[in-house]
Amino acid sequence: MSHGHGHGHGRGPSAAGAHRWRLQFAFAMVAVFFVVELVAGLSTRSLALVSDAGHMAADVVALGSAIVATRIATRKDTTGRRTFGSYRAEVFASGLAVLLMLGVSVYIGIEAVGRIGAEAEVSSGPMLVVGAIGLVINVVSIALLRGGASESLNVKGAYLEVLADTLGSVGVIVAAVLVSTTGQQWWDTAVALAIALFVAGRAVMLGREVLTVLGQHAPAGMHPDDAERALREVAGVVEVHDLHVWTLTSGMNVATAHLVTAAAQPGEASADAGTILAQAAAVMRDRFGIEHATLQVEPAGSSACAQTTW
């Protein structure tokens, strides 16, 4: 019996770690503007501004946790017990971003409903100025984070937070213009409620991705049946069982499988386990992008898995 591992055991940088500087720069800009927008929102009594400041606060926490997570993910394990390292910290940071987005959405929704039928004087001039500044900062942050959003769930969480905030800034500008031109204060509340609904929808989408990783589902775009068929095509393999594929963190997919080889016929040499392992590992790496594949070769009739109860 042979046991083989796909290469890539080292604790290299994760997808989010490669874009750490983007997170840091965006964090600095958003943190400064959050203070400015909160003060402006409270002084102008604009719910749209306060809602956008709340989104900014969520951005600050989300970006900060993403930065911390990238540091945790790459730190050396001193316990010897974390055999997969701490890469999942980045996924948990994405989960925190989801909770923050939902929390802000619920808060703004409650505030908006509470304002229905109430009179609230809103200063549209400062709203317009602050909204425009916020839009510029968010656009710059989006440009920074977009490069890593497709590679890292952690960066994607921060990216979606900032993207939602960009809509918030646009909403603030629209609300300021509508309040100024129509004299109707309720436009501020309506825009705030629309922003809250949009952010909630984005949070649910990201939350589904986080739960997919934590639930150890097969990586997006890959079906286990396809991997099983590909492994069966390896010369000498007659059966594949105990196949598992999952995502450790963004950009790090893992697989395990048992490969059963045909019994050698009289006068024939048995299949070479080393060759089978090399070919099977190449299939997982080249066709499915899985660099870490733990593969076990078993001769036909082997009782190696007879003791497995699950």
Please explain how this structure is put together.
- The chain is elongated.
- It has 2 domains: 198 residues, Cation efflux protein transmembrane domain (Alpha-lytic protease prodomain-like, Up-down Bundle), CATH 1.20.1510.10; 82 residues, Alpha-Beta Plaits, CATH 3.30.70.1350.
- It is α+β, with helices and mostly antiparallel strands.
- α2 runs antiparallel to α5 and α2 packs parallel to α6.
- The N terminus is likely disordered.
- The chain has a 4-stranded mixed sheet with strand order 1-4-3-2, with helices on one face.
- The two termini are 21 Å apart.
- GO terms for molecular function: zinc ion transmembrane transporter activity.
- Keywords: Ion transport, Membrane, Transmembrane, Transmembrane helix, Transport.
